Amino acid sequence: MAVRNEISIPVFDGADYSNWKIRILKFLQYRGCVEVVKREKCKSDDSSWDEKDVQATNYIYSSISNKQLEYICEEDTSYKIFKKFDEMYLKQSTALQIVYIKL
Q: 37, CA 20 to 30 Å: which among 25, 58, 87, 94?
């Protein structure tokens, strides 16, 4: 029997965003695609940028709940996904965060 050596990121459901973000960023670094969530694509970036962005987006989608997916499904890059989550969970009041968690 083969041993699966994949890292598992807990599903983000709206709670503990800061902890989830640390985990997913480290996972994306491990998978070689963290740069695409930290900045937007530049003209000087090669075609591998788009491949890495798709890869990062899929990892993010795989580690969030369906409710969280509803919030970010309109975003077309992993950078914009993180920007949206940061706006929702890092800059808003605690009361608003509770509303997002309970939705």
A: 94
